[in-house]
Specification:
The complex is a heterodimer of chains A (about 110) and B (about 110). Chain A has about 110 residues and is mainly beta. Chain A is built from no helices and eleven strands. In chain A, strands 2, 4, 5, 9, 10 and 11 form a six-stranded mixed β-sheet that branches. In chain A, strands 1-3-8-7-6 form a five-stranded antiparallel β-sheet, with no helix packed on it. In chain A, a hairpin with a 6-residue loop joins strand 4 and strand 5 (about 45-50). Chain B has strands at about 5, 10-15, 20-25, 30-35, 45-50, 55, 65-70, 75-80, 85-95, 105, 110. Classes of the chains: A mainly beta (about 110), B mainly beta (about 110).
Chain lengths: ~110, ~110
């Protein structure tokens, strides 16, 4: 039972354009959501997060949007840069304010082309 | 400040053998979680250790066990290895009483032949 789903295995975007990565979840107990970026031969690196009490969080070129009623979140990267090429994982947590296990999606491979 | 460090980086084992993977958490972190990432999949939660005890456990058999030491470092042990245990094993650390992101190590690539 995949509680966090990333239905697009890959995405190709031109440099300078917007990249939009999508994620859906089924467990209504999730209340904290994170995006991680992973390069080959490296561990996942934290990118940005959002609490369920918010609907948007922005950090530089990265913005995460949360639609609780639709159980959907998205990551926007603008403008996209070649260095953004990596696998992006959406993760969810039912944290109760303390460290808790992360449930990950299967990832979306982003390719930013010149 | 060293982040999360894992050893070894790569390992090849034979079916039926046992393996131990090691993790040192980021400075200031007291909670360590282990994840298994199979090829083409997202990381799957194995278990979490806090105060030297297993606090949460994912859907993994008892062949997977762990330990946390007083200095917060951790080990993951897998007994009776199967071919299907071949994966990237990731360690993540956090501070228990703070709602902050988990920091991951670079992982240990385990190949079972």
């Amino acid at each position: 039972d995949q509680q966090v789903k990333q239905n697009s295995p890959s995405l190709s975007v031109q440099e300078g354009r917007i990249s939009i990565l999508n994620c859906d979840y089924t467990n209504s107990m999730f209340d904290y959501f994170l995006w991680y970026k992973k390069y080959p031969a490296e561990g996942p690196t934290f990118l940005i997060s959002i609490s369920s009490i918010k609907d948007k969080n922005e950090d530089g070129r990265f913005t995460v949007f949360l639609n609780k009623s639709a159980k959907h979140l998205s990551l926007h990267i603008v403008p996209s840069q070649p260095g953004d090429s990596a696998v992006y994982f959406c993760a969810a947590e039912g944290n109760s304010g303390t460290a808790s296990k992360l449930t990950f999606g299967t990832g979306t491979r982003l390719q930013v082309t010149l | 400040d060293a982040g999360v460090t894992q050893s070894p980086t790569h390992l090849i084992k034979t079916r039926g053998q046992q393996v131990t993977l090691r993790c040192s958490p980021k400075s200031g972190h007291d909670t360590v979680s282990w994840y298994q990432q199979a090829l083409g999949q997202g990381p799957q939660f194995i278990f979490q250790y806090y105060e030297e005890e297993e606090r949460q456990r994912g859907n993994f058999p008892d062949r997977f066990s762990g330990h946390q030491f007083p200095n917060y470092s951790s080990e993951l042990n897998v007994n009776a290895l199967l071919l299907g245990d071949s994966a990237l094993y990731l360690c993540a650390s956090q501070k228990m009483d703070m709602n902050t992101e988990a920091f991951f190590g670079q992982g240990t690539r385990l190949t079972v032949v």
